[in-house]
Design a protein that fits this description.
Pfam families: Sugar_tr (PF00083)
Strand content: under 5%
Number of helices: 14
Keywords: Membrane, Transmembrane, Transmembrane helix
Number of domains: 2
Radius of gyration: 24 Å
GO molecular function, one term: transmembrane transporter activity
Catalytic activity: phosphate(in) + H(+)(in) = phosphate(out) + H(+)(out)
Structural class: mainly alpha
Organism: Coffea canephora (Robusta coffee)
Order of helices and strands: HHEHHHHHHHHHHHHE
CATH superfamily of the largest domain: MFS general substrate transporter like domains
Number of strands: 2
Distance between the termini: 22 Å
Shape: elongated
Strand order of the largest sheet: 1-2
Amino acid sequence: MPETARYTALVANDLKQANADMSKVLQVDIEAEPAKVQQTAGSPSSSYGLLSKEFLTRHGLHLLGTTSTWFLLDIAFYSQNLFQKDIFSAIGWIPAAKTMNSINEVFTIAKAQTLIALCSTVPGYWFTVALIDRMGRFAIQLVGFTMMTAFMFALAFPYDHWTQPGHHIPFVVMYSLTFFFANFGPNATTFVVPAEIFPARFRSTCHGISAASGKLGAMVGAFGFLYLAQSPDKAKTDAGYQPGIGVKNSLIVLGAVNFLGLLFTFLVPESKGKSLEEMSGEIGDMKEGGEELDHPASYNNRTVR
């Protein structure tokens, strides 16, 4: 399997090989223009390294945006996912674990989580697939974090109200909507955007850094919420745990995390309708390096420019 033509042309600076590879893939004759070969080789985009001063000037804020939003999202998203059963039990939607045998407990939790997935998590992805190229990545991520923040605070501040008998259904609905807007929001866009906004030779590395930041957030969320959500009353904590700040205050913390994600979203550029070279600045670099490039829309199927 050949390397991608974009990498071969822009990173390896071998337009001839890129032409040959694409000729095989597309089964058409592709001719390289000599002037473009020299122009690409002299492009400023191939002269600076990862995390260099030039990289940080061009893409530092973008990398901060992709790493921070993925990190913050996963704190909230994994916390909510892993501890649904504890929250639903606390508000009385499902019975406490001590009132059921192990089989009934697993079955009850599975029913609740399946309902949440079918009504909110999965449809959220469908909405993203349908609208991502209409609304754009930035708008979807911003709306997602905004709604997650709003619903989380709506659950947290009147938490004592939701724990009263007969009030758990509105809580479950709003809790489900946080999952809907996670998937119709940053849980989809945070892994799309890093693959679109960085130069070809840094794209995989920057995406990997962003993803690693997200997994760090997942660990913080999983372990942090486990301890934070413990009751402040030591007599009510789970065996082996120290008193925490309680579910209410933990939900407030998650709301604040989502709000920070909303703010850091403004560091991430919109990539809707733009080529990878436009987003990364590689087209502009090649213009600086020599003759101005034609607009990508004018390319024909027989010439790689």
